[in-house]
Write a structure and sequence with these properties.
By secondary structure, the protein is of the alpha/beta class. The protein is 31% helix and 17% strand.
Length: 87
């Protein structure tokens, strides 16, 4: 399994996604910006049909899960939102 890189932000155009997309698994944060996450998942899916795209979100509503699956995600990981706490 190859995990190639962590993107600090979503690519803003198609040119940024046309590079080396050879990872086996992509984790896409659907909480940060759902519209851009949907677009990124669609573009990754179109460029690399063999990759597994996992949507990660604190949303567990059926509509959210269906939206992620329709844009090319093969799995939906529900996670509680990260909350910063002081020690």
């Amino acid at each position: 399994m190859r995990l190639r890189r962590h993107l600090e932000r979503y690519p803003t155009d198609e040119q940024e996604l046309t590079g080396d997309l050879s990872a086996d698994i992509y984790l896409v944060d659907f909480d940060r910006d759902r519209q851009r996450a949907t677009q990124a998942a669609e573009e990754i899916h179109a460029a690399d049909l063999d990759a597994a795209i996992f949507a990660v979100s604190a949303q567990s509503a059926p509509d959210s899960i269906i939206q992620a699956m329709r844009c090319g995600c093969s799995e939906y990981i529900w996670s509680s939102p990260l909350i910063a706490t002081s020690c």
